[in-house]
Amino acid sequence: MSNLTEYILNPENRTIVVIIATLVLMILVSFILIFVKYSNNRRLAKEKAEKEAEAEAEAKAEAEAEAKAEAELIESRLEDANEDAKEAKIRARIRAAIKSDRLERRARDMEYQQEMNDYEDDYDSEDEYDSEDEYEYDSEDEYDSDDDKSLVSFLKDAKGEPVEEIYARVKIIGKKYDIRQVILLRDGSPVTRDYRKDRVRIFYDEDDLVTSAINA
Prior knowledge:
The chain is mainly alpha-helical.
């Protein structure tokens, strides 16, 4: 140890000692710089990995959210389609029922109208008008009370009466008021909006009872 100290302190060896010390110092500094750089690289790599992992997690979450939203949208559309299909089916059934009911009502109305037309033809025959015993409504005394009334009052009082009876009575009484048309209509049937004094419309329900009768 003393020899090394003497060698270092010897002025003749000062240059070599300085060179050696400088080299050692440079080596130490290099190792320090390498260590610092290595530490920084590890820290940066770790931060980069964490950021990449975080970005990947966010991307995965966004993809899952989009997939979920798309699935919900598809499910909602399927439900809407099912509801539309159900509604269309219900509407089709309703239209079919309405059409069937209308056809049935039209057939009944046509049949009833034909019967009333036949009844009118039979009633208007001269032989039946000449026979007072066959129809009690032909008696003038029977209609004195009706003739005293106005036609509007008579039609107003006809509500709830059998349609055949009111039809027959209007046909007779209507001659006094120049009534040329007596039309039977099922209650709720569409009618024209024109006004005619020589026409009487008689509306009746399913029980063949008069619901309303108007001179129009």
